[in-house]
Amino acid sequence: MAVSHSASADSIVSLRNVDFAYAPGERTILSGLNMEFPKGKVVAVMGGSGCGKTTVLRLIGGQVTAQSGHVLFEGQDVGQMTDRKSTRLNSSHITISY
Asked: CA-CA distance, 84 to 95, in Å (whole number)?
């Protein structure tokens, strides 16, 4: 069962104090990242090459897990979701276009 966290009522996705590296000892991709994605809005994640845009999207989609912090979808920690629930989340709520 996924743990529920308090999320902003206006956000569908929240990233809170997220740290991420693809492997221990490798370059840190994200450090202390905080982001809010408002409900009912189209959001663009923009930045320079290699700054972590795709990593943020992969964290939200549950393809990778943060080393620390929380990635929340409707108050539920994506990193704690079962594979089945994560798949259902991706197929019904998230669209990623490159």
From this structure: 17
